[in-house]
Design goal:
The chain is mainly α. The chain has 14 helices and four strands. The strands form two sheets. The chain has a two-stranded antiparallel sheet with strand order 1-4. 28% of the residues are buried. The N terminus and C terminus are likely disordered. This is Phosphatidylcholine:ceramide cholinephosphotransferase 1.
């Protein structure tokens, strides 16, 4: 084995842990805690199909295997040596008889040690293009799209509000949930508090993600599309208020200056009733609160380590309790919540299935998913992302500096012989 490989195979389990941490794959520290350097370089794809490694990463260990292959680069050099030592060709030296009858050693190329200078070209693999390019420009475009859809939603709510029939003229529609549960006044505040907690948890988690640009634009694309769909469903069918407790703000009857002030107030308050910004009616089918409660949970679960099961269950409970409180407050019909949950989960699963399968990023006769209207933007945002994005984390701030453990440095790839 070449010199570097000798050093790797002699690594202790502690040194293996340090190497995993320094290379931003700390999620493997627990399943590989007893592995030596020899065990590390012997890992194969089959090992990642079995527990516990199969539960660590969704990329089947491809990233870690690629890093291990880098450690094995010395094999590549060994295969190209072909009898060469330290970049020179060894030439055999024999005694030759000179004219005076005495034997002496020949000097080749003026070098008495018997080596001949000759440069050797060792083919090295070209640097690979990153599988997960950041492309922050695309993320910014996705953010602008989501922002536009949110603003358009507030405009639609203001327009639909003018069309809502008075509750005295058109009473609430029958609802099976309302028939079985009396209204709880404070329940909707619990829903919005749960939603703010989930949004806060997701934002902190997103900040710590290594590939936050890719994941961020996925979030913006999905949430923007969901709110765009909501604009359509709200506008085409205006439902009466779901309860007699609603106190809708007065109608403006074409006063566009007042419309604009009302829209700005709704945007500034984040569309939340708890902030006092949302007192309009008509935005029922489907529930925007359910969209946020569901989508934040799905992203939190998808991009956090599988071993944090307690964290997943906590976020799931916050989401479910929030949706139940929407209905308990009688602020949305049951169909509003059901439709919102269905559309949100399906769009999330469709998008990620397409993003994780390279063949689905290419339009073809057999790829029926390519017929959705947002397929071209999807291709633009995802075409350079190769494979499943790892759940990798790193500290994104310059302070405080976290302890990264003892570093192992190599001054040369091959030791002198």
């Amino acid at each position: 084995l070449p010199g570097k490989m000798k050093e790797v195979v002699l690594w202790s389990p502690e040194e293996v842990m340090n190497w995993l941490t320094e290379n931003a794959v700390p999620e493997y520290c627990e399943p590989l805690k007893s592995f030596t350097g020899q065990d590390l370089i012997n890992l194969t794809e089959e090992d990642f199909k079995k527990t516990p490694l199969s539960r660590v990463s969704s990329d089947s260990g491809q990233r870690l295997l690629h890093m291990i292959e880098t450690l094995k680069m010395a094999h590549h050099i060994e295969a190209h040596k072909n009898g060469h030592i330290n970049g020179h060709i060894r030439v055999s030296v024999s005694n030759t008889t000179r004219e005076n009858g005495f034997s002496s050693k020949m000097k080749l190329n003026g070098m008495p040690n018997g080596y001949k200078k000759e440069m050797i070209k060792i083919p090295m693999p070209e640097p690979e293009r990153s599988q997960y390019p950041m492309e922050w420009g695309k993320t910014f475009l996705a953010f602008i799209y989501a922002l536009f859809c949110f603003i358009f939603t507030t405009v639609t709510i203001s327009v639909v509000h003018e069309r809502v029939p008075p509750k005295e003229v058109q009473p609430p529609l029958p609802d099976a949930f309302f028939d079985r549960f009396d209204r709880v006044q404070w329940a909707f505040s619990i829903c919005e508090i749960n939603g703010m907690i989930l949004v806060g948890l997701w934002f902190v988690q997103w900040l710590l993600l290594k590939y936050k640009s890719i994941i961020g634009r996925r979030f913006f694309c999905i949430v923007g599309t969901l709110y765009l769909y909501r604009c359509i469903t709200m506008y085409v069918t205006t439902l009466p208020v779901p309860g007699m407790h609603f106190k809708c703000s007065p109608k403006l009857f074409g006063d566009w200056e007042s419309h604009l002030r009302r829209i700005m107030k709704l945007i500034a308050g984040g569309g939340l009733s708890i902030t006092g910004s949302h007192n309009m009616c008509g935005d029922y089918l489907y529930s925007g609160h359910t969209v946020i409660l569901t989508l934040t949970y799905l992203f939190i679960k998808e991009y956090s380590p599988r071993r944090l099961w307690w964290y997943h269950w906590l976020c799931w409970a916050l989401s479910m309790v929030g949706m139940f409180c929407i209905l308990l407050a009688h602020d949305h019909y049951t169909v509003d919540v059901v439709v919102a949950y269905y559309i949100t989960t399906r769009l999330f699963w469709w998008y990620h299935t397409m993003a994780n399968q390279q063949v689905l990023k290419e339009a073809s006769q057999t790829n029926l998913l390519a017929r959705v209207w947002w397929y071209k933007p999807f291709q633009y945002f995802e075409k350079n992302v190769q494979g499943i994005v790892p759940r990798s984390y790193h500290w994104p701030f310059p302070w405080p500096v976290l302890h990264r453990g003892r570093q192992v440095k190599y001054s040369r790839l091959v030791n002198d012989t």
